[in-house]
Request: fold
Amino acid sequence: MKIAILGAGAMGSLYGGPLSLNNEVYLIDTWNEHVNEINENGLIIQTTNEEKIFHPKAVTSAEDVGVADLVIIFVKSVHTAAALAGSQALFGEDTIALTLQNGYGNDEDILPYVREENLLIGTTASGATVLQAGKVFQAGIGPTNIGTRGNLNTKNIDKIVQLMNESGIECYASDNIMLAIWTKLMVNVGINAVTALLDVRNGFLAECTPAYEIAEELVKEGTCVAKAEGYELDAAAIAEKYYIHGAKVVGNNRSSMLQDVDKKRKTEIEKINGAVVRIGKKHNIATPYNELIVKLISAKEESYSFQ
Ligand code: NAD
Reply:
């Protein structure tokens, strides 16, 4: 299959490497040094005990790829709309698009480019960070779940699930993918902004009562909004499972928003806590904790250029 990965940073590389073993894979990224390094020396995926080298093709422009069978979108969610607008060359009549990005609303950004039954959405429990150009660290490995909005065209889902598993990526078809996306959103709603503002690793939430309580309030608002959209989630159970028990497994992780703030990059706040605020407004649900944290992170982003 001809696969284009749009955004080949940590996660795009983590998926693109193994997929290139038995597919024609193009990694598309605006980061020239990374693209050159992959083409010259291969893409290195480092795990805790080994280094694997893959040889996908890397390019800086979708024009160099042309129409793909599958486009996997792995830019940060705040860049989805712009990245797609510059990559129309990838999309033909039958192209399938898949997003495993964090945040809410990536599907809406992708929908103008594909037929709705060809739009796959999902979640990944894997994690990665970029170490240097051409090299990423596999921070954790977990299942990928995919589905479609409204459970359309399950043939496409089965095809991509099989493709992933054939490349060694554990992947499942989900018949309620929106619930999985809302659950993942709630995990990020509580962890990301709080750890980014406090400059702490994820495990801090399990140790610090005020930080845990803020995370829990953010998630409570999020679950009220999810309920109004038809998805029933338990805020206390999410906080307990991911912030207390999760700390034992991924407590040492630095959240992606903390990493963005460290590198003075735009964060995904608008697609995470910002989504709770936006959808809350639609249902007349007050979301004061999320509103405040969106403003705090937005102010943090503006402070990057303040002298
Ligand atoms: P990343 O910053 O490592 O990679 C994104 C890449 O997109 C960068 O290399 C950047 O140069 C590139 N890019 C930006 N604009 C582009 C454009 N217009 N065209 C082509 N490339 C462009 O980000 P990541 O950590 O891989 O995260 C990607 C998505 O996956 C995010 O939504 C993130 O929340 C989600 N996610 C990340 C992890 C993780 O552990 N890193 C885990 C689960 C989900």
Summary: The domain at 2-175 is CATH 3.40.50.720 (Rossmann fold).
